[in-house]
Specification:
The protein has 285 residues and is an alpha+beta fold. The protein is 16% helix and 37% strand. The strands form 4 sheets. It has a 5-stranded mixed sheet with strand order 3-9-8-5-6. A 4-stranded mixed sheet has the order 2-1-4-7, with no helix packed on it. The chain has a 4-stranded antiparallel sheet with strand order 13-12-15-16, with no helix packed on it. The termini are far apart.
């Protein structure tokens, strides 16, 4: 290499300034090593925005090298709560209808299931606190894309189960499922009824509307709304102060304009002191 450099310098002394500059540029291009290939997981590490195509390639490549975990071929159990994945093109797992909530939490009991429903983007649903968690992907690790829009997982043990999206964990795309035993559910004053939903929307599926039950440990504001598959509020069932105890309410299957809601999948969102959760409604016409 040294002899080649000496020869190059000798040529430069004999060449004019224009030829010398041309020779230097050519030599620099030849001697410069090409940049290293980008890691397929660079977006995950760097937290850089991805196009839809780049997100899809990332997820496809991950699962071409790693088997899915946690998906079963058996029919999905009825979900006790639902997370929307990427609603309104956000990097969020949303269960309370409020995208400003940094990390949403669903609270269920042992033996109940959580449904994740894809809305936009390409993501993963992976248990654990993040990619550095040694337990990441042990319980479930599946894609959430237009080709795989639904994932249901049944939690058979009590505990706190965080989860995240692999390519978007640096954007804070995370969630938590808290699973308790029935004995650990806070009782209503004077009774032993769980706070929040005491009965899911029924009948379900329905051709008209549904009724549901809920309970409060102490009086407070209760809001129940119906959301479509894009996370948009189409009807407000109730929004008022309610006394402590058990209550029932109903949605008549109509939108807030009074029109009959078209057939499809909807989500009943309930908020009350100490509880926020959703339940799935299948509406047939």
């Amino acid at each position: 290499m040294a002899s080649h450099r000496t020869q190059h310098l000798r040529i430069l002394r004999q060449a004019g300034p224009v030829l010398a500059l041309t020779f230097i540029l050519a030599l620099g291009l030849r001697d410069t090593a090409p940049p290293a290939a980008a890691s397929p997981h660079a977006g995950h590490d760097a937290g850089m925005p991805m196009t839809d195509e780049a997100m899809q390639r990332w997820v496809d490549q991950w699962f071409s090298q790693h088997p899915e975990v946690g998906r079963t071929a058996s029919p999905a159990a009825a979900a006790a709560d639902t997370f929307l994945v990427g609603p309104n093109s956000s990097f969020r797992f949303d269960t309370d209808g409020n995208l400003s909530t940094a990390i949403d939490t669903a609270k269920i009991q042992v033996g109940q299931s959580i449904l994740w429903r894809w809305v936009t983007g390409s993501h993963t649903i992976t248990n654990g606190n993040g990619s550095l968690d040694p337990q990441a992907g042990i319980l479930f690790d599946v894609p959430s894309t237009s080709a795989a829009p639904l994932f249901t997982f049944t939690f058979n043990s009590a505990g706190t189960f965080p989860f995240f999206c692999r390519p978007h964990e640096s954007f804070g795309m995370k969630g938590v499922v808290v699973v308790s035993t029935p004995a650990g559910v806070p009782p209503v004053a004077g009774g032993n009824i769980a706070i929040g939903f005491t009965s899911g929307p029924a009948p379900n599926p329905s051709r008209s509307g549904v009724s549901f039950g809920f309970a409060l440990r102490e009086g407070g504001r209760v809001e129940a709304q119906v959301l479509d598959g894009q996370g948009r509020v189409i009807a407000t069932v109730m929004d008022r102060d309610v006394e402590a105890g058990s209550h029932t309410e109903a949605w008549d299957g109509r939108t807030r304009t009074g029109a009959r809601a078209p057939a499809g999948i909807y989500y009943l969102r309930l908020r009350l002191p100490g509880f926020a959760g959703t339940r799935r409604i299948a509406l047939a016409r």
